[in-house]
Amino acid sequence: MTGLERFNALTRSEAEAELLGCCGSRRWARRLARARPFSTIDELLESAGQIWDELPDEDRLEAFAAHPRIGERSSGRAAREQSGTRGASEETLAALARANRDYEKRFGHIFIVCASGKSAQEMLDLCLGRIHNDPRMELQLAFEEQKKITRLRLMELMETRLPPSASLLPVGS
Question: Which CATH superfamily is domain 69-132 in?
């Protein structure tokens, strides 16, 4: 049985629980679980992105709340996604913690970035660069980063890996 077949066979509540591990928006998880069955992973990813784009801001901000701050000690998936912080100097981690606090104070939500494959310094530079953005523009950037994170997590859930050259943007973007 493929990952997609297994996912399609789950009860709605089981599917929602698995989806919440990919994106912390309960409405997103409910809607995507109801949209099953999917014929292909591309169809699943397209639906996931479309549902995300249709959510009101408060539901998308709910997803942000499910994330640890970049650079904080975490376990499981978050630790793997933020593996670029392992081995970073204490100075870099302290600067990242300060940047996270400054970002949250300015925008009212945590700094969201698709951390996979990024070093602690790269994440710090991104945070420092984005902190000067217009708040609405920054919120849109954060929403797009969450979309990338969700796409990677869905592919992991479906036991599918992106080829190195593949785009992280959803199909149709």
Answer: Oxo-4-hydroxy-4-carboxy-5-ureidoimidazoline decarboxylase (1.10.3330.10)
Rg (the chain; Cα; Å): 16
Q: Which CATH architecture has domain 1-66+146-173?
A: Orthogonal Bundle (1.10)
**Higher pLDDT pick, 167 / 55:** 55
- pTM value is 0.84
Q: Which residues are marked as active site?
A: 67
pLDDT over 90 at 166, yes or no: no
Which of 79, 77, 32 has the alpha carbon at shortest distance from 52?
A: 32
The DSSP letter of residue 78 is H
Q: Which of 67, 162, 160 is nearest to 115 (CA)?
A: 67
76: left (phi over 0), alpha (psi -120 to 50) or beta: left
The two domains 1-66+146-173 and 69-132 share their CATH topology (first three levels equal): yes
